[in-house]
């Protein structure tokens, strides 16, 4: 059970999935008039090249202080008795080393909800049976996961056969979508791996037109034992740079 908790904690912390905008008022103009004109301007924005888009994403993400991420798994495969599988999760990340998340996971064949808090070098996870907080030390380093060079965001730079950007929208945010293929080995740190070498995943990301930050990352295919070709993991990211307070729980 303890190993299962560690596996849950390690997986949750990776989710390590950007929005900061407001309406401006002037004279007697109505607020939605500004939103409309802004969206029109973004819709008519010059299309960047794939290289320009991904370079801007890498650069701008380094200035992010916090964000919210939601993970959804569609068409999950079978789950072995000793395997832990996330079905959904959502949480907040405060750079560079704080994470607070909740997830629904399949553990020993049962659907349970667990919570995780990570502050610096200390991690805390709730026992799926009692709900009590447990301490896990020296197992996870959030800084290696929030880092754009090593975490979930780094997957974008490892995509192969990347398409040119096309217009799209994620949760009302105008963005540029690019698609490509990703070797499943690069996602093993999140899924646990266990799939044949060379397995490729269909991958796409949508990058905000206004801020060049990622608002969605989708990976489809066999990324873990039990997955099918239809298994899809979608990370939806929002609420960039909002004030979020994450503290260690009372034990």
CATH class: Mainly Beta
Q: What name is given to the CATH topology? A: outer membrane lipoprotein receptor (LolB), chain A
Tell me the strand percentage band: 35-45%
- SS content category: alpha+beta
Rounded mean pLDDT is 82
Radius of gyration: 19 Å
Describe it:
This protein has a single domain, classed as Clam (outer membrane lipoprotein receptor (LolB), chain A). It starts with a helix and ends in a 13-residue tail after the last strand. The protein is 20% helix and 35% strand. It is built from 6 helices and 11 strands. It is globular and about 55 Å long. It has an 11-stranded antiparallel β-sheet with strand order 6-5-4-3-2-1-11-10-9-8-7. The protein is α+β, with helices and mostly antiparallel strands and 251 residues long. A hairpin with a 3-residue loop joins strand 2 and strand 3.
List the keywords.
eleven-stranded antiparallel β-sheet, single chain, 251 residues, disordered N terminus, 6 helices, outer membrane lipoprotein receptor (LolB), chain A
């Amino acid at each position: 059970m303890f190993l299962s908790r560690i596996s849950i904690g390690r997986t949750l912390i990776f989710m390590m999935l950007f929005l900061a905008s407001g309406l401006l008022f002037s004279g007697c103009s109505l607020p939605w008039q500004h939103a409309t004109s802004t969206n029109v301007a973004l819709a008519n924005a010059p299309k960047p090249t794939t290289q320009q888009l991904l370079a801007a994403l890498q650069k701008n993400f380094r200035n992010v202080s916090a964000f919210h991420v939601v993970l959804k798994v569609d068409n999950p495969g079978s789950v072995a008795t000793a395997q832990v599988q996330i079905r959904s999760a959502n949480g907040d990340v405060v750079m560079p080393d704080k994470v607070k998340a909740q997830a629904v996971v399949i553990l020993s064949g049962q659907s349970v909800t667990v919570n995780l808090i990570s502050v610096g070098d200390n991690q805390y996870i709730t026992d799926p049976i009692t709900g009590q907080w447990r301490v896990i030390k020296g197992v996870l380093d959030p800084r290696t996961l929030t880092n754009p060079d090593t975490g979930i965001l780094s997957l974008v730079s490892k995509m192969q056969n990347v398409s040119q950007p096309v217009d799209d929208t994620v949760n009302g945010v105008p963005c540029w979508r690019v698609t490509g293929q990703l070797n499943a080995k690069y996602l093993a740190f999140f899924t646990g791996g266990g799939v044949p070498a060379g397995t490729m995943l269909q991958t796409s990301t949508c990058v905000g037109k206004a801020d060049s930050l990622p608002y969605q990352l989708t990976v489809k295919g066999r990324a873990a034992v039990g997955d099918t070709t239809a298994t899809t993991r979608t990370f939806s990211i929002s609420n960039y740079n909002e004030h979020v307070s994450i503290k260690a729980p009372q034990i």
